[in-house]
Amino acid sequence: MLRAVRLNNFVKFRNDCMFSFREGGAYFFVGENGSEKSSVLEGIRRCLSRDANTSFSGFPDESKPSYIICEYEMPDGCLLSDCKKVFTSFLYIPDTTSTYKYAKNVLLVKKDEVFIEFIERENDAYLMKHRTCSFQDEEEQNIRKEIFKYLPLCTKDSDSSDNNITTLLAFLKKLLYAKREDTVASETADKHSEVENVLSSLENSLVFTFGQRSLGPLLWSKSKLIAIPKRDKNYRTARGKCEIINYFLSNSNSYDTQKEDKIFRLLTNQANYVFYLKKDGLVSVKLDGDGVEVLKLSEGILEAKYLSLLLACKEHFTILLQEPDRGMHPQMIKLIRDIVLPEVKDKTTIIVFHNPIIISSWCIPRTYKFYKIRDGDKLISKMYKIPRLLASEDYVCILFARNVIFVEGQSDFFFVKAIIEHIMTQPNDKSTQRVLNLALSGETKNTQQFLTFLASLHVVKLSGEKNKHKWKYVSRELGLSGWFLLDRDAVVQVQTVDTCNLAADTIAWTKNSKETSLSTFMFQPKMEDGLVSQDLKSRYVDFVKKNKWLEARQCLEEEGVFVWRSGNLEDVFIDIVKNFEWADETTKIWSSNQTLLDDNVSDENIRESIVSAFNLCDKDSDITQFILFLERTQRVGLGSNIQK
């Protein structure tokens, strides 16, 4: 079974990445498109197979070593179980003095022995020649001891792993560039045969499914491919493409039939599907005794069948699944999540998926989040430190996002989503053009780039400003570009003190290093005989209206925080209309903090409010400044948690 993977300077992963599968069972890879989830699975496959593509996958920095190392434990009952651990790897060590830069190697670790074999690549072609090192002489015995000492530690998630990797690479480099032997001694040949057997056993114990990347033959109702003369051919082609199902039905001893039937019937709500082979060796299906063409089955039923077969198989102990839930109903996915996968403990199962439904609280510590950074590199974050509230349906979407803005309340949530939708769907509307021109005047305007950014922006409720520190931490751990929209009282607070020696308008900049760098401006009022002076309110208002507020806002925006200067969302609208003769009536409407949540307020009402605000606001209004804030976040990365 696969127990660990470690890689560095591999494909797009410039930094060290560690995957630990020590407990077995199910693990999850999530992340946005293009975050190289599949490349890790492909690296695992290449480390085992002699027949797989032997080209090296590239690396971000040619001047540094590149490697992917996989650690396996031989399963109990295996004929080769005396070999407790196997490490397989692709390795590149830069050296301008040698043509042998690439190697694929296998290391067998027994109780008191380590054996290494290289497959080398010279220039641009793999020679597929073997060099084995059985550590016969005294020098090689010393190397064997060091490899035996360091290698098991190289795939452990610990502080000392980096030093162990460095030491191991030094030894491997020495072996890799050692004098080549044209012949292989007989005792070494025996070891070579053992390596081949071990590798073959591991390769047979791993199965890898590919995500569907192409369209089927039935594209639309006008297609000539579905004409009656071609119907029978289409039916047979569909049966032939069910390779996983055909294989297991042809090899019934290779899986636990009772376990498979239990899983499948659970996922299909006890529906009476029967899969069997006809005389032509291809699968056919009956439902309640009546024949059903495979081509007419829903994709979710076929996915449930092949998933139940793989999870019940006896010969595969490491299963790598790409997008196994593309056609499943939500109820099926929840059953897989809550009942099926928690019981799969005799295999290491790695699942790449894009459906947030599959995430639950027990999945969080077993999930790896893949994400991009600004220069195109990729990173990975294990989520064992992430709060389990992330499994809530309100928040799980951020696992698949790159850009997130957290808003304080439900009204802000509705309003910000409506602003984004209006700008994206009505970019040429007069009101949209007006507010964009106001917000972006003097800026390097790229409307299309801004619209692309808005399309990637997820809006998430904080459910109270007190949660801002928690979500700042989550954003950082997940590698998200996370920003915050808060009411004024979340960051500008009145603080009474016991001394009267403070200036009337002192602003204290405070940071809590244990939580986050989300800042709070403390307004410290002047004291008179131990009591707050009577003009506190007027001086507080002066603060938020004068230049010191602009200084405060600039500091906050550098941290990715935007604050309604007016107070809250409803105050923003009141300030926009205050200079108009009909302001009193509008103020009455917006005076409640629940205005947008009223049952009588429709989506159309909210859109009309946005158009009105866009038409009436000026350059200094909160609405305009908020749009400018969004534009600046995508252009210069305000407050971004992404490593640069």
UniProtKB/TrEMBL annotation:
InterPro entries listed in its UniProt record: Bact_Antivir_Def_Nuclease (IPR051396), P-loop_NTPase (IPR027417), TOPRIM_OLD (IPR034139)
Pfam families, A to Z: OLD-like_TOPRIM
Domain OLD protein-like TOPRIM, residue spans: 399-454
Name of the protein this chain belongs to: OLD protein-like TOPRIM domain-containing protein
Annotated source species: Sinanodonta woodiana
